[in-house]
Design a protein that fits this description.
The protein is built from three helices and eight strands. The chain is mainly β. It has two domains: 135 residues, no CATH class; 34 residues, no CATH class. The strands form two sheets. Strands 2, 3, 4, 5, 6 and 7 form a six-stranded mixed β-sheet that branches. Strand 4 and strand 5 form a beta hairpin. It is elongated. The chain starts with a strand and ends with a helix. Bound molecules: zinc ion (2 copies). One zinc ion binds next to loops.
């Protein structure tokens, strides 16, 4: 969606849309699936710029960081951005506290393309490591089996090295 900021009048521009984002285009290998993104929001004049407020709702499927099983979750998140068109470069020594406190989106023209904003938000909502459950046992490093389902897959072959050392000490 593209919003012409110069057309935003005294009343904020509002929308409520559904967007489809191709999961492959997100370039996040851990993201296996993405539902339609429902989002609604507004852009209002907030001199010297504008303010964008939006709420996103969607479902994501992520690979478990240990066993790689797909885990589905619902996401609801908020966007709150100050939009500035051609913001002046900071003066020497000027501390831009406002910009570090609030998210600021600097644009080169009066046209706001919401696609990158939406994508960035989805990207930010992907956790560093998703787990299917907090105690996920992961995959067996020896045979690759899911240890949650077959905890003893390689039990026979793996001999605790401490026991092996004791066995060597025993006179034969
Ligand atoms: Zn898992
Ligand atoms: Zn195994």
């Amino acid at each position: 969606m593209r919003i012409r900021l110069d057309k935003v009048g005294d009343e904020p521009f509002r929308w409520s849309e559904k967007e489809t984002i191709a999961v492959e285009s997100m370039e996040r290998p851990d993201l296996l699936g993405l539902t339609e993104v429902e989002w609604s929001g507004s852009v209002a004049k907030a001199p010297p710029g504008y303010r964008l407020l939006a709420t996103l709702r969607y479902g994501q499927t992520l690979a478990c960081g240990r066993c790689l099983k797909p885990c589905e979750s619902r996401v609801e998140s908020e966007i709150d951005l100050v939009v500035m068109v051609n913001p002046p470069p900071p003066m020497a020594g000027e501390v831009r506290l406002e910009e570090s406190d609030l998210g600021v989106l600097a644009l080169a023209s009066e046209e706001l393309d919401t696609d990158p904003v939406l994508r960035e938000q989805i990207d930010l909502n992907i956790p560093m490591s998703e787990l299917c459950r907090p105690d996920c046992a992961g995959l067996c490093p020896r045979c690759g089996a899911d240890r949650n389902e077959t905890p003893d897959c390689c039990a026979e072959q793996s001999v605790d090295p401490r026991w092996r050392a004791l066995a060597d000490l025993k006179p034969s």
